[in-house]
Structure formats: structure tokens, C-alpha cells
Amino acid sequence: AQAPADGITAAVFANTNNTLLAASWDGTLRLYDAEKNELHHMFQPNSAQLDASFSVDDGKGFAGGVDSKLRMFDFKSGSSTVLGEHSKAIKCVEYCGATGLVLTGSWDRSLKLWDPRAHDPLSGSCELKGKVFSMSLSGNKAVVATSERHVLIFDTRKLSAPEQDRLSSLQHQLRVVRCFPNATGYAVGSTEGRVAIEYFDPNPEIQKKKYAFKCHRKNVDGQQLLYPVNALAFHPKYGTFASGGCDGVVSVWDGFAKKRICQYPKYETSIAYLDYNFDGSLLAITQSYTFEENERDHPRDAIFIRKVTDQECKSRVVQ
User: Fold this and answer.
1) pLDDT over 90 for what percent of the chain?
2) 99 phi and psi angles, rounded to 5 deg
3) 117 exposed, middle or buried (CB, 10 Å; 0-12, 13-18, 19+)?
4) What is the DSSP string of 144-171?
5) What residues pair up with 282 in beta bridges, in sequence order?
6) How many Å apart are CA 48 and CA 23, to the nearest integer?
7) What is the DSSP string of 85-97?
8) Do 59 and 72 contact (CB within 8 A), yes or no?
9) Which strand (E) or helix (H) includes residue 313?
């Protein structure tokens, strides 16, 4: 099926089927059937879209981007509605299934909560110290990675202030954060080829389990090249996770056993986004140059759907 014509910023699976929603710098939001490799819908907000999310029943999509507007897309009718806006680009959009609300994070250093069913959708907001770079939800927990290496943990029902404000153990800019499927913690990736595994519970015994590890690096002529970690995705069944970097490599890790399970053959350019489908049988791998070496000729932007075997994602350690 026809891929977006410019950098792909997100390619997310639906909650209950193998529909895939892709946001892009080409100003489109595309809805695919990942199994049949068919493009079902192409919405054209005509502004670069930086993130997207499905409603809980997968009948609607929500997306935001550089024109600062949050839009709701109805896949049945083909219509779109502007729910509201930030004062700068919307970087992250997450639908909260527990509350039916949409959470957006922006470069304007704020989070906003929206009720798509309400006449006046804005239902909460919080000013932050930094720009929002990445965000992940699990139940009522929201984890937000911002500039200045801060990770904020919110209860989405009380958005006025974070429950915890942590300075990341990673020493460089944070690129991506994703919650564990069991909602006990999160993984965060940085620009210097490193991933940290963290836990929500501040109990010192639990905090002893946190750690960070090096990945997406390579030795060239005696020098180590460090590549940004752009993407993380947790397997919904096994709790293992995939990481993707600017080196074009996707690796799958057992975070609890601290081991790599497998590494896929290298892709042609940066891995921009990763997402497992609802049952973990498919992995959407987004290959899209992320301009870490500025403007240059680069391989095509593409979304690859990989059929995943248990061998590639199941822990080999007997618990």
C-alpha cells in the first residue's frame, strides 16, 4: 500500500484488530489494513502530523502536529473535527481507555486533557518545565519524557501536578518512553544509545531493580559510534520489548533477565517507530530517516509488518 511521502512520525496498531494508523510530515493521517496491505482512508489535515492514537473501540483516531491542533477522525463517516489546540506543536497524543479522554503533550511545555464527547472538550491542563518529547499511558498512569531529561509521572485523573518528577539517570536528551504492560514501570531511551528500566514504586527495595544498558552502538576504526534510540515497544503478552535506533537496527530484549533475545537484519535507514499489534503476533517497524545528519538523500520511508514468532519475543529464562 502507498506509504506516506515524507518522514513517518508514528505507526500505531488498533486495540482490537490489525488496522494501523500512520502519521507523517507529509500532512496526512493514513489508515491501513496491515494484514491485507491496503490503504483504507487518507485524511489530509495539510499540516505535518507528529503523533496519533486510536479510540478504545478503534472507530476513531486522534492526531496532532505542527499546526498545534488536536483533531478527531471518524473512520466510518470520513469526517474530521478540531477538538482544540496548544500554542505550539503537539508532539504526543494518547487516548486513555480508562477515562475516554485524550491526553496531548506539546512543545509549548504543557499537557492538556480533552473529552471528545463534550461540547467544550478541554477538561484539564498542566504547565511543565520542559517541552514534551515522548509520552506513554498505562491504565491511569501517564509517563512524560521532557527536555532537560525530566520524566514526569501523572495520574490522569489528577492532571494538575505530577505525582513524581524524576531526573533521568540517562545523561543525554530523552527520545522515547514506554510503560511496561503490567503498569509497574517504564523504559526510556536516549540519544546516546542507552535505555533505562525504571519502576514507579518509590520504595527503596523496588528502586534497587532499576538499571540502564548500552545499545545501538557500533565500533568504527577503533571509535564507538552512538546512535539515538528512537523507538521502544513492549510485547503485550510477554513483557519483553523491542528497541529501534538511528543505526537501522531493531533488537528485542528481555528487560527482567537483562538479556537480548534477538536482533533483526539491519534496515536501510533509521527506525523511527515500533508498535506490536494487540496480541503480539505482528510488529510494525517504521523505517524513516530522522535527519540526524541533516538534509541528505536517504532511503524511502516505509512501514514493514513483521510476523513475530514466540522465539523472537519470549523470555528464555525460566522465571
Assistant:
1) 88
2) -115, -15
3) exposed
4) EEEGGGEEEEEETTBTTS-SEEEE-SSS
5) 307
6) 8
7) E-SS-EEEEEEET
8) no
9) helix 310-313
For residue 149, report the phi and psi dihedrals to the nearest 5 degrees.
65, 25
What count of other Cβ atoms lies within 10 Å of the Cβ of residue 182? Answer: 10
Q: What is the pLDDT of residue 307?
A: 97
Contacts of 154 by beta carbon, 8 Å cutoff, 6+ apart: 111, 126, 141, 142, 143, 144, 162, 163
CA 51/CA 142 separation, integer angstroms: 16
Instruction: Read off the pLDDT of residues 224-264 as tens digits, 9 standing for 90 and up.
Output: 899 999 999 999 999 999 999 999 999 999 998 999 999 99
φ/ψ of 207, rounded to 5, equals -65, -20
**Grid coordinates representing 304?**
514493514
HSE value, Cβ hemisphere, 13 Å, CA-based, for 12: 24
User: Three-state DSSP class for 234?
Assistant: strand
What is the tens place of the pLDDT at every residue in 96-132?
A: 998 999 999 999 999 999 999 999 999 999 999 999 9
